[in-house]
Amino acid sequence: MNSSEKIQVDELFTIYHKQIYQFIYRYTQDEMLSSDIVQDTFIKFDKYADKFDPSKSHIRTFLFRIAYQLTMTKLKRQDRFVKLLPFLYKKDQGDSISLEDKISIRTAIKKLPPEQRSVIIFSYYHDLPQQEIAEILQIPIGTVKSRLHTSLKKLKNLLEVDDNEEERYPR
């Protein structure tokens, strides 16, 4: 790889490393693992950059796909699928959500299967379009829509149950 291509990888790292780190950290809750996967993502990209076809997907999609696959591989090895995910909310709503609500959301998301967690994170935290989520996860767009619908329905039911229980059993 020549020096101009190296600069491109460095530029890609500068642009995308924070987004990739945030996704991985939210999924694993492990700072060290997240940092390692971010580095591994760009090392793997550097190694397989010739396989990237800009006519088939956006570079961000390609990088997120690599990061997602590396994350799943490492989590399977470490058997960490039961780890708690942080609450998901848009950054501009952060101050308006109470601590009690954050805990409720965190608890509800913990109960989602891993494949639904991924779709929720990509969609609601990273604001990715469904087509790009499908490309990253290498699943049909219909599956993305189905997982979003199912996970949102589960979250809604889980959060409503918690609210009803509080109303039935006041403190």
Describe the overall structure:
There is one protein chain. The N and C termini lie far apart (65 Å). It is globular, with a radius of gyration of 18 Å. The protein is built from seven helices and no strands. Helix 2 (31-48) crosses helix 3, helix 3 (59-78) packs across helix 6 and helix 5 crosses helix 7 (141-168). It has two domains: 1-83, RNA polymerase sigma factor, region 2, helix turn helix motif (Rna Polymerase Sigma Factor, Chain: A); 87-171, Winged helix-like DNA-binding domain superfamily/Winged helix DNA-binding domain (Arc Repressor Mutant, subunit A, Orthogonal Bundle). It has 171 residues and is mostly helical.
Topology (SSEs and partners):
Blueprint: H1 3-28, H2 31-48, H3 59-78, H4 99-110, H5 114-125, H6 130-137, H7 141-168
Helix pairs in contact: 1-2, 1-3, 2-3, 3-6, 4-7, 5-7, 6-7
